[in-house]
Write a structure and sequence with these properties.
The chain is an alpha/beta fold. The protein is 34% helix and 24% strand. It contains twelve helices and 14 strands. The longest helix has 23 residues.
């Protein structure tokens, strides 16, 4: 259960009315599942707010809040329960998922989106999902990340709840932390990393091509040795790949297709020469920006099918892989903005646009084919 302080901190001081405080206390006491007495609620509020801040005559207050609070046992003493509308009321006001004990094994959100940067990556996510007006702030101010939520519909009309956020900085550690906290608060069914990356040259990649990490690898994981006067690196990878169903569904997008044609037609700026497509394969991650072609060659000695390098996906995959049940599925969709040793910012906006557009189109088209529901 969320602590009472967390539920209070989720709203502005002027919104902490007597009603909100009482409903929050009932939630934190587990009254959505197990009825509690007026005395228990009063003691709880006195402990957390002080005696002078506790509303008088709680029994009368409970009766006034009849939509949100119900008599579960006439006793004596009377026992009260937090009704579903009451739980939904504080969820709406606080922006918190507020699970109850019997829902701990359930997902609370459909899609969690993680980006490394607010611009251009998350800005492209907002554009791809209905614009800034479609997104509302959610979550507790106790957490360092800013969470926003919107609702989208699949092509078959199913509404999906989406929560998105950005890391506090680039890199594996920051991406792992933000993903872990997103999962713990909102329990998404699917986590999607959306952003930009450096591609490798093989495979005729083009600016804007989408790189799907399968697996994601931490290419810096291993042992540096010095033998016979030569420094060498012995990799010790722990690659993490996609869910098999998700991988299979993605395969159909590997060639140039109508989805990418539609995405390209919506871009008003300069376009790359070739049509865009998906590349699925090993995507390297480490806390370093590569501007040296020889470093790519070194990595490819161990990962000959390397499709690109970036700085976050492995942290996202590891956080999802080791999260508590119910675990989310996860995927990284990053678009090529440069080719590592050929650094340029010219294609970053386009790459972020393509990655976000493809991710949301894929979700809308394929959601029902991913789950046995």
């Amino acid at each position: 259960m969320d602590e009472f302080a967390t539920v209070l901190a989720a709203v502005r001081p002027k919104q902490r009315t007597d009603q909100y405080n009482i409903l929050a206390a009932l939630y934190c006491l587990g009254a959505a599942k197990t009825p509690v007495t007026t005395r228990v609620v009063q003691d709880f509020l006195e402990l957390h707010l002080g005696k002078t801040q506790v509303p008088v005559n709680l029994n009368a207050r409970f009766r006034t809040y009849s939509t949100f609070v119900r008599v579960a046992d006439k006793g004596p003493p009377l026992r009260w329960t937090l009704s579903p509308p009451g739980l939904e009321k504080i969820r709406t006001l606080s922006g918190l998922p507020l699970p109850t004990d019997h829902l701990l094994d359930d997902y609370l959100t459909d899609v969690g989106v993680v980006c490394a940067l607010e611009y251009p990556e998350f800005a492209a996510v907002i554009e791809a999902s209905g614009g800034s007006a479609a997104w509302q702030p959610v979550g507790s101010a106790r957490f360092p990340h800013v969470y926003r939520a919107c609702e989208i519909k699949t092509d078959r009309g199913k509404p999906l709840k989406v929560v998105g956020t950005t890391s506090t900085s680039m890199g594996l550690t920051a991406s792992s932390i933000v993903t872990t906290q997103l999962i713990m608060q909102f329990r998404p069914r699917l986590v999607v990393m959306i952003g930009i990356a450096a591609g490798t040259r093989q495979g005729n990649k083009e600016f804007g091509d989408v790189l799907v990490a399968d697996p994601s690898i931490d290419y810096n994981s291993g042992k540096v040795v010095f033998a016979g006067g030569i420094r060498d690196f012995l990799p010790d990878p722990y690659p993490i790949g996609l869910n098999a169903r998700l991988r299979s569904v993605l395969q159909k997008y590997r060639g140039v297709n109508d989805v990418f044609r539609e995405i390209r037609s919506g871009w008003t700026g300069r376009l790359p020469t070739l049509g865009n497509r998906v590349h699925i394969g090993p995507l390297g991650a480490a806390d370093q920006v590569i501007d040296d072609e020889s470093r790519i060659i070194e990595i490819q000695r161990n990962w000959r099918k390397l499709i690109g390098v970036e700085m976050e996906t492995y942290g996202v995959y590891r956080a999802c892989h080791e999260s508590p049940e119910p675990k989310p599925r996860f995927v990284s969709m990053k678009s090529v903005c440069d080719f590592a040793a050929e650094k340029s910012d010219s294609w970053q906006d386009y790459a972020a646009y393509v990655a976000a557009q493809f991710a949301f189109r894929f979700i809308k088209i394929e959601w029902e084919s991913l789950w046995n529901t």
